[in-house]
Structure formats: C-alpha cells, structure tokens
Description:
By secondary structure, the protein is an alpha/beta fold. Helix content is 37%, strand content 18%.
Amino acid sequence: MGTDLNAPLGQNRKVRPARRRDLRSFLGYALVSLCAATVIGLSAWSALSPDGLIHATEAPELASKGAASGDASATSGKSEAAGRRKNPLRADGALSGAHVEEMLTNDGATVTKYTPRSREGGGPAFIKVGPVRGQDPRMAALPNEDLLEDSPQGRLPITGPDGLRPMDQYARPWSGARGTRVALVVGGLGLSQTGTQRAIRDLAPEVTLAFAAAGNSLQRWMQDARRDGHEILLQIPMEPFDYPDNDPGPHALRVSLSATKNLAELHRSMGQITNYTGIMNYLGGRFLSNADALEPVMRDLGKRGLLFLDDGTSAQSLSGTVASAFDVPHGFADVIVDSELSRGAILRKLDELERVARRNGTAIGVASAFEESVAAISEWMQEAGGRGIEFVGVSALVNDPQQK
Length: 404
C-alpha cells in the first residue's frame, strides 16, 4: 500500500535534524539570560543612582562628549543642556558646619544636598553671631575677653575685632518702645562700703550705677552690680575751676598736663574695673571747658567704643561739641536729683525729671549714693513705673552717631 498507515507505530517516520532543535534551544536560553542581565543591570543602576541624578561636575564632560560625536539623540541633548545650564557651584563649606553638594538631573534641574560636616574636638560648639546689644545675664559679671587689651595701666576696654563695642556688650537691654523713657544714674559707688551695698541692694536693676575710680574693692562691687542687672559707668576725676581748693583726688585729668600724661592717668583709672559702658566726669568744670585738653580723651574713648556722660554741673562744658567731632556716643544729665539732700527736695526733682521726659520723650537724672537719695529714688520709681514711664540704662539715651 502506498501509505504508512499499516506501518508499525514510530517506524518509517522522517527524523528532523537534531542540530536545528539544539540551536533553537540555545537561542532561547540566551535570550532569557540577556533579559535577566538587563533587569539586574537596571536595578543596580537605580540603586546606585537614585532618581536618575547626575553629579553636576560630570555634566560638562557628558556635554563635551556629545558635542564631539555630533550625536543628535535625546540623551546627549539633555546632557548638553545640563552642561550649559549649570551655574557655578558653591564651594564645599560655603555654609558653616555643613557640606554642600549640588547635582543636576537629566532634565536640567539642580538638586542641592546638605550633610553635616565633621568637626574636630569633643567640646561644646560655639555659634558666633553679629554684634548684639546687651550681655547674657548669666555672664554679666564676667568681661568679654575680646573687648580687653593688656596695658601697663591694666586691662583696658577696646572695640572687638568684629566691631562690637563695650558700650553695646555691657548695655542693659530695654524694650525698644518709643514711649517716655528715663535713665537714672547713681554715682559715687566704691567710696563707702555701706553706701555701695545699700545702692546695689535697694535700687532697681534699671538704675545705672557709676563707680568712682578712686574707690575700694571696685572689681567685687562691679560683679555684684552686674549680677543684679545694673548697667555701670566709671567716674573719672577731672580738674574743677577752683582746683586745688576743690581737689577731685589723685590721678585727676588736668589742663596743665600733657596729652600723654592725661591719657596715662585716664588709662590707670579705666584699668580698675571692667564691664562698663562708658565714663562719666567727677567734677571737671575747667577740664571740660578746655577743647585742647579734652580732645585726646574723646579720641581715645571713641576708639575704645565707650560713651561719655556729662553730669551737667558745668554750663561751660564742651564735651558735646568735642564728642560729636569724633563720633563719640555722649549724653548730658537733664536734672541733678539730689542737689538738695532731703527726701522732699529729691522727690520734687524727680517729678521735674518726669516732666522733662514727657516733654522731650527722654530724660537723664544723676544723683549720688547717699542714703536719702537711694531711698527717695527707690520709692519714686515704683510709683512712676505705674504712670507708663520705662526706666532704661543710660546707654539707651545717649546720642550715638553709629545709630543714625
């Protein structure tokens, strides 16, 4: 028969070449392996370069390669765009305490990453800020070492390397409101232990205390006053008109002395304590009226970042004129509170001080640390505070050229 229907099963059948079947199997396995390798490669690339980020420093290289080959593909076009759009990067460490890294994405966007920078040492980290007004109360009794220089006359105040002035560092903070403001200055501290203790104990922290350069234990009293929140001044003895009948004491500044000698005497007094915002005259009618004698002193105060307060006892004083010429912060007392030493007279003077403040917006009153003065001022301040008066340190009311 012409068919193979009757042939035994599996006999006389054409056998296909085994080589072709093996080749197809091999190609199938190779294709599967290639796909698997592609998937693994893409996964690894994604893990190592999340979000498809390209470091900005690599972008110019990619752009140059694309330009050299003339490849017009979309990928090289994006790389070229990224290279062209890249702005100059900030140097590492442009932000203090941080490592800054900028990267470009494939679409040309810039991504900035900030990571902490490791620092040496295990101690506390100190953050520097710009000049500020006032001192941390916890550190008020200690001087800022950056605002001191060593000299044969002692440690003298100076303006800091960043422009911070002792006047600003040791000033008593205040609200900044432009209401009626009064500064009260009580001087003569350090001359009497009992009077000094009474003034520091009984007067409100808003009162500025002035220490006499000729006083005793000044550093100790200064620290007590600063801990209680007082702003302080240093009283410098100066020659009065009736000198030597009226003697301001040793190391006084005098018209007859040379500028070098007067500066040496000034620095000797200034080296007695630290942490003061400025100086205030003790007597000094003749000295303050002599521009030639006063000029070197004002120059020195301006250089050191200190204010000058004139107690207002001399109508011929040129302190304001000379201080303005050298951009020295300066002020004048409006009222001498205890020119008459009785409670009633002092309270009347304090009421006059209030009227001046309401008329002008500000007023400065001065007094000495007598028992009657301290008691009357303490009593009056409690009442005046309820009438809307803000009591401030004297540095807040002086004419400061740097604040114009």
